[in-house]
Amino acid sequence: MQSKVLFQKDDHQWVVIGRDPEKDDHVIDTNEYVIIHRGQAMLLDPGGIQIFPQVLAELAKYVRMQDIKVIFASHQDPDICSSLAMWLDLNPAIKTYCSWLWTGFVSHFSTGAVITLNPIPDDGMRIKIGEEGPEVEAVPAHYCHSSGNFSLYDPIAGILFSGDIGSALVPNHEASLVVTDFDQHIQYMRGFHLRWMPSTTALRGWVQRVRAIKPRMICPQHGSIFQGEHVGRLLDWLESLEVGQWKGATPKSDTRAAA
């Protein structure tokens, strides 16, 4: 796996881990993010069981295992957090957060360690990074695509972790970490969103909330990152979509399961 620092200011840092050229073909590529503040870390959507060793090895370049204080899961899918028990085996003191709707479901990922989850209420909440760190905000993203779903906004960095919203199934030969040509990138997002987003109303509601936040960067769990003018273009594109209207054929670009 590869990693890159997305934001660095004083003692506050964002790192993305992803783009694994050695992953099995049947495992969809995911982005894992970590926020580090004064040496203490918050891990966002830590990923699936299959990639746990690679994520751990890459993360060790930036932070010690005992300094991971918080894990945030945007929703319940296995590519999001099936590795959760493995992280807790190494550091049982990690505080884990996900929607209250999924606490009983995510607990099924336990492989021995007891997964105790802090439930996020539907309206969202503020979560502290570490023991004395600043707060980030869990932003409601219900039905985009999960019925209990959250994005996460960091006001210091101006970065929004969007989970599956804005995700793209990017082929390896065009696996740019940051979107440089939005029009070209749409082809990798369209099939994913038309199939996995069930509610146009919910998606437009999320766009309105994000416009009010005015993030400088949007980081999805799959695909490439949006920054600068592409943040606004992504929001405009999402607002124009009519989703949740399956008509009997799966787009060829969406033949691989992704959630």
TrEMBL record:
Q: Which SUPFAM superfamilies match?
A: Metallo-hydrolase/oxidoreductase
Top-level taxon of the source organism: Bacteria
Domain Metallo-beta-lactamase residue range list = 29-222
PANTHER family found in the cross-reference section: HYDROLASE, METALLO-BETA-LACTAMASE SUPERFAMILY, METALLO-BETA-LACTAMASE DOMAIN-CONTAINING PROTEIN
The protein's name in its UniProt record: Flavoprotein
UniProt organism field: Nitrospira defluvii
